[in-house]
Design a protein that fits this description.
The protein is α/β, with parallel strands linked by helices. Helices cover about 15% and strands about 40% of the residues. It has two helices and eight strands, in the order E-H-E-E-E-E-H-E-E-E. The longest helix has 11 residues, at about 15-25. The radius of gyration is 16 Å and the shape is globular.
Amino acid sequence: MSFRFHHVHIICKDLEKMIGFFTEDIKTKLVRRKKFGTADGASLDLQGTTINLRVARADEMMEGGASRPVYGYNHIGLEVEDIDVAYTDLSAQGYSFLMPPTNIPELRISFFRGPEDIVIELVQRIDAGS
């Protein structure tokens, strides 16, 4: 049996703001608005990866937030061609960075807070000799 990544699903407070962030700032494509059960939501396409967004259902008790670590979720990782350009652009749009672009073996990474404090890691592949 083989597995491959299918989608990520995010429950959000403000669906319109989250759609705007992903479509305008991250450049995903809005595929469609849809219901997830009784909850309003949307499906987005990030170069072949589906990002599903939805608000909480009326009968759903939500606890905590993405701003603090919890078992099961830590962050979303997005690969970029030029992390320094992405860092400059997102900083200019007012996003708060937890870590500026930093080199680690074979990667250059950075973390920032998106809407509703979701943590997003930017990743740029670098040559081992860089």
